[in-house]
Structure formats: structure tokens, C-alpha cells
Specification:
There is one protein chain. The protein has three helices and four strands; from the N terminus they run αββαββα. With about 90 residues, the protein is an alpha+beta fold. The protein has one domain: 2-Layer Sandwich (Gyrase A, domain 2), CATH 3.30.1360.20. A hairpin with a 3-residue loop joins β3 and β4.
Length: about 90
Amino acid sequence: MAELLDDEEIQSRLAEDWERDGEEIARTFEFDDYLDGIEFAREVGELAEEEFHHPEMIVGYQQVEVRFTSHEEGGITEQDIEMAKRVNDGA
């Protein structure tokens, strides 16, 4: 099992434009149209499958919210931070 990060570690390592929301980190990505958001969600899904670390995603009309947490550990781990950075880099 991965170790949970403490509050200071989370804040210092959090990927750009991501926020902590309780035991998750989250970011909402904006798109010009719905299908761009769907394509983005598909790309994030492929990354999640490769890494076997799956986020919650909420797809809206011109936005996709992505949330990471490590369920087995009960909070935020280094894997969540790294996945957020990879999503920022283009899924």
C-alpha cells in the first residue's frame, strides 16, 4: 500500500490548477464543445487503464471534472499527484 501524504506534502506537490477537496484532488477542464471534452475524458481513461489508477470524471457540456484519490489508502498519495501531473501534460 502507498503512504498517504500529509497536508504540507499535498500542498507543495499539487499539480498546477488542481485543488484539494477533502480526501481528493480535483480540477475542472474547459472545452470549446462537448465532443472535445468527450475526447479528453477518453484520453484520461486510457491513461488510467495504463496506470491502473482510475479517477472519477464528470462530463458536462463544455467541461470535464477529474478527481483522484487512493481509495484503498483512504486519501491522497503520490500516485494521485503524479496522475494529476500526467493529465495536465496531455493525458
